[in-house]
Amino acid sequence: MPQPPKSNRELIWTVDRNFQGWTCSQCEWNSPLPTLLNDPEAKTAFDRLAAAKFRDHKCADHLSRLAPAPADSFTARIKNMVAHGFKPKDAVELFLQEAALEFRNQPQMLAQAKSEAEDFLRRLRAGLI
Length: 129
Ligand SMILES: [Zn+2]
Prior knowledge:
Layout: E1 11-15, E2 20-24, E3 30-32, H1 40-56, H2 74-83, H3 88-102, H4 107-125
Antiparallel strand pairs: 1-2, 2-3
Helix pairs in contact: 2-3, 3-4
Bound molecules: zinc ion.
Zinc ion binds near residues 9, 24, 26, 27 and 29.
């Protein structure tokens, strides 16, 4: 598989144990979500700011990304379904049904899945994705 050109960098929503926020697909640039940011409008403002900072950053000024962003994040799963032709709302609904089965004994993961799905729809409505 040929490597995509460097200009194909992507703004990626990343959630793991130590980090929650936006990252660049090509370098270590990131914009962590401030803790205690729960208000949807404040989150959208944060997303817009992160998108603007992302456009302005130069990958060359940051370390190269060593590991690719995890492809199995919840947001990536929803995006993947949309890429395969699902309407975003249907993709989110289907994803939540899958998550409810997958994490029926893991309430924390289920809550995380729901919150990422809500964020996905909120960003879509705000025209951010
Ligand atoms: Zn970058």
